[in-house]
Amino acid sequence: MKVTIDTASCSGHARCAAAAPRLFRLDDDGYALPLDADVPKGLEQDARDGETACPERAITVG
Q: Which domain holds residue 37?
């Protein structure tokens, strides 16, 4: 499972990190950092939760 973050669409609400702090990381300004690897086993639901929490729909899980 991969997570794609459209960093140009991210507005820095940090809702992804609030919903799934074990998976989503933020930069110093509060914007989501791209994920460089597949979602670790056991964090699939966290990925979906982060995707759902994003008001800009900048996160895609697939």
A: 3-61
User: Mapping DSSP to helix (H, G, I), strand (E, B) and coil, where does residue 60 land?
Assistant: strand
Are the beta carbons of 10 and 35 closer than 8 angstroms?
no
The pair of structure tokens assigned to 20 is 């799934």
Positive or negative torsion for Cα 60, 48, 52, 50: negative
Q: What is the CATH number of the domain that holds 52?
A: 3.30.70.20
| Phi, psi for residue 23 in degrees, rounded to 5 | -115, -45
pTM across the whole model: 0.90
Question: Tell me: the pLDDT tens digits for 6-25?
Answer: 999 999 999 999 999 999 99
Distance, in Å, from the CA atom of 15 to the CA atom of 49, rounded to the nearest integer, reads 10
Number of domains in the chain: 1
